[in-house]
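Good morning N.,

You mentioned wanting to compare the apo and holo forms, so I went ahead and generated the holo version with zinc ion. This is what I fed in:
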Amino acid sequence: MSFKINCICNICESIPENTQISFAIGYVENLEPEVKMKCSNGHVFTALLQVPKFAFMFENGLTAFNKGFYIEAFSCFYSAIELFRIDFSSAYFHSYENKSVNELKKHFKSIKISERIYGIYKLALGLYSGDSEDKEFTTIKIKGNKNKNITELRNLVVHAGHIPSKNEVEQVGYSIYKYIIKIYQTFNIKEHDADDPFPWPAIMQYYFDSIVEYCQENILDYQDISQNKDSRYTIIASDTYTGLKLNTVLEISNLPTFKDLLEINKGHNINKDVTEKIVNKEIAI
Ligand SMILES: [Zn+2]
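and this is what came out, ligand included:
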């Protein structure tokens, strides 16, 4: 699976006499931070992703739901929670045990079975919050023909050919959204001061550090890239591409509804048909 993304072409933009905005397209295909982008004028540059993969996966679920592909939406929402477990665990060991991003990526690569990843997650979650049983997740109930918990429903879909109803998919998507956001917004870096009213999400820091480590490894200047001084690279931030608002402080007791998320998704540009063709827009003067 890949996610199609677009952004304004760095190189076209750096030509002063250019009166057109050119868009470049790229495909997010793996867990590496870099994505090759290409614009309609043939310019090629690299986008560095500061966007957690679970956020892309969840957003893709919303796109599928908006299009009426409910089974795909279901599987994306469920994959989002599995990717979130990797990010939470990595961010925990990065912030609380001082492990480098590269070290963590290397070790996580060799762990492919989701049950094992879940075990590591429950350890990290237990160390952080005391909930090593992950009760917040396992007790999520999905209302339907028979009331099931979220894992039972997932097993029916994956192993017994159960086709989830639109309503079940919506409940699964929204429960996963609330679960992820609540943990994301309250899981702060080790140095975070309890008196500080604003969160400092450990996963946000982990993704930021992953780009800094990438730059160090490739002898690139992070400052130059983040200030748009190196046209070979651009940094892609989370909130521009997904509706989870991972770079924003959210009020947990007043989160957007599922309907709100579907509306926000329509304005984002992951996997949208319009980006099939590379478009140029005249700059309105
Ligand atoms: Zn260009």
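Residues 9, 11-12, 22, 39, 41, 43 surround zinc ion (CB under 6 Å).

Happy to go through it together on a call whenever suits you.

Best,
F.
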